[in-house]
Amino acid sequence: MPDLIVIGAGLSGLALAREAAGRGAEVVMLEARARIGGRVLSHRTKAGAYDLGPAWVWPVLQPRIARAVQAAGLALTEQAETGGFVFQDQAGRIQRLPHGFPQEPPSLRITGGIAALVEAVAAGLAPGVVRLEHVVRRIALTETGVAVTAESPAGPMTLHAARAALALPPRLIGGIEILPALPPSVGAGLAAVPGWMAGQAKALALYDRPFWRDAGLSGSAFSQVGPLGELHDASLPGAEEAALFGFFSWPPALRAAHRAGLPELVTRELGALFGAEAARPREMIIQDWATEPFTATEADQANGNAHPDYRPIALPAPWGERITLAGAEMAPEFGGYLEGALAAAEAALGA
Ligand SMILES: Cc1cc2nc3c(=O)[nH]c(=O)nc-3n(C[C@H](O)[C@H](O)[C@H](O)COP(=O)(O)OP(=O)(O)OC[C@H]3O[C@@H](n4cnc5c(N)ncnc54)[C@H](O)[C@@H]3O)c2cc1C
To answer: How far, in Å, is the centroid of ligand 1 from the Cα of 240?
Structure first.
């Protein structure tokens, strides 16, 4: 019988599993999707990788990320922000400002995408530890530990272990039957915690070259019209292609109502902000996290933009003796962020 079943192979679950295995525990991971990474998803081209989920890290503030990037031997590059800034007001009028609002400390990207970091963490696990396409549906407390039931391509399966760790956005825990049932107040407490950015969506537009720099623009823009609200250069250093990306300001319901026409609406906006060439990307990708059942719930369709003040939640006895909560939203610090995903994994195991 394994010592630990980790549910969810995002950065938090993978870090937790790796650390537990490193301390000698026998670990199994059950992951609902057919890939690892969860909210981390990097789109790969011949030139490199572009992040459709998290893209930025701040290693000067985030010691665990700094250590993980260094251990993986990954390079960092600063978010390109040099040059003019484009602002579109509610009436659609465009203004070009001489400079934008540089971040301090600067936002850094990982060369190879955040997926490269996730893969480096996963590479420390023995083959067979991660079982993809295993959707956990039930966790029952048993005399000796837990019985975890998942739907798998081979049908339902149940695994027994001494303990389980849930490393997923807390609202998704409501979709797992826990036996005996958690007290309603605990369930309500978990349901009240939004998955950070779970209701968000990103658009990525790939071009042959960063033509906006010819016009002295950084690629950063704000639009009060949308569909994208905040845009940035996503080009890879030295690559023979260029990219812009944007976060949608349109909420999930509006995106859903315009689903089929969304790429066209985005390219039109890019053209308005950065000129005709921007309206002709060679590739356009829209990643809508609100439509992903293993990231977002119904409640996340109404997410605001404010960063919640995340606090760790420990399950009461008897559940807490067998089931640990991890995931970025359970972090003692940097809740919601990649650093928080690592901090929660660390806290789940105890220092
Ligand atoms: C668009 C976007 C931009 C972001 N930008 C940044 C950024 O720039 N910097 C930053 O630090 N953070 C950012 N974040 C947040 C960052 O993505 C998260 O902090 C981090 O990825 C969370 O990792 P996690 O492992 O806690 O959760 P997840 O990555 O959500 O992992 C949970 C895993 O559980 C799996 N799962 C769910 N249900 C089940 C089930 N029933 N059974 C089995 N498995 C299940 C999921 O498939 C998933 O793999 C962003 C997020 C988004 C969506």
So the answer is: 30
| Residue to mutate (ligand 1; options 7, 12, 39, 286; most atoms within 8 A of CB) | 39
Beta carbons within 10 angstroms of residue 285's beta carbon: 16
Q: Which two tokens stand for residue 218?
A: 């950084």
Rounded to the nearest integer, the mean pLDDT of the chain is 96
Residue 304 pLDDT greater than 80, yes or no: no
Question: Would you say residue 309 has pLDDT above 70?
Answer: yes
| Ligand 1 pocket residue status of 341, Cβ below 6 Å | yes
Confidence label for 101 from pLDDT (cuts 50, 70 and 90): confident
Domains parsed from the chain with CATH numbers: 1-39+115-194+308-351 (3.50.50.60), 76-110+197-306 (3.90.660.10)
Contact assessment for residue 148 and residue 161, using Cβ atoms and an 8 Å cutoff: yes
Which residue's CA is the nearest one to ligand 1's atom 22?
Answer: 328
* 90: amino acid identity, one letter: Q
Q: Which residue has the tokens 């992951």?
A: 31
Tell me the CA distances in angstroms from 6 to 17, 153, 176, one per residue in order.
7, 19, 14
0.85 exceeded by the pTM? yes
Task: Give the model confidence (pLDDT) of 30-52 as tens digits.
Answer: 999 999 999 999 999 999 999 99
219 lines ligand 1 (CB under 6 A): no
Name the one residue in this structure whose structure tokens are 């940035």.
232
Distance 53 CA to ligand 1 centre (A): 8
Pick the atom of ligand 1 nearest to 326's CA.
26
Bridge partners (DSSP) of residue 45 are 48
